[in-house]
Amino acid sequence: MTLSFNKVILVGRLTHDPKYYSNTEGKEKVIIRIAVNRDWDNKEGEKEGETLFINCEAWGDRATKINEWFKIGRPILVEGYLAYQKEWTNKEGKIIREMMVKIKNWEFMDNKGKNENNNEIPESAGNCETEETTPEDFDSLVEKVVSE
């Protein structure tokens, strides 16, 4: 039996406003890019870091809510899995595959209180309650991430 596990949890800030799409069949999709920082101490004890820019995609109600509640610069926690976004062959003939995170759940990471339409942020947006992940799971994860 082959063991396989594909789960991603990221906390970052949107690098641009969500790109929202709706097709003629009424299916909604949103694409966001988040900046995720990684910091560490080098061998000399000096702080170093890098920023990764990661494309993420959500469908349906998740897409609608992300589009409504998030704008450039706002922090977000996303949980999902890695999938191929696109594939191409470079000048040297090497196949390049670009990955993205397919969002299954998301959570607010701030308390801004209102969206651009001046609507109050719901206590629970109903965005992360699945059989796999509960709001309590995210709370413990966020505490762990913040304390590191």
**Beta-strand percentage?**
over 45%
Largest sheet: 5 strands, mixed, barrel
> How would you spell out the order of helices and strands?
EEEEHEEH
- The CATH architecture category equals Beta Barrel
DSSP summary, beta strand count: 6
- CATH class identity: Mainly Beta
Distance between the termini: 35 Å
Helix fraction, binned, reads: 10-25%
Q: What is the mean pLDDT?
A: 82
How are the strands of the largest sheet arranged?
A: 1-3-4-6-5
SSE layout:
Elements: E1 8-14, E2 19-22, E3 28-41, E4 47-59, H1 60-69, E5 75-89, E6 95-108, H2 135-147
Parallel strand pairs: 4-6
Antiparallel strand pairs: 1-3, 1-5, 2-3, 3-4, 5-6
Q: How would you portray this structure in words?
A:
The protein is α+β, with helices and mostly antiparallel strands. The chain has a single domain, classed as Beta Barrel (OB fold (Dihydrolipoamide Acetyltransferase, E2P)). The protein has two helices and six strands. Strands 1-3-4-6-5 form a five-stranded mixed barrel. The protein is globular and about 50 Å long.
What is the structure about, briefly put?
The protein contains 2 helices and 6 strands, in the order ββββαββα. The chain is α+β, with helices and mostly antiparallel strands and 148 residues long.
Keywords:
alpha+beta, five-stranded mixed β-barrel, 2 helices, 6 strands, 16% helix
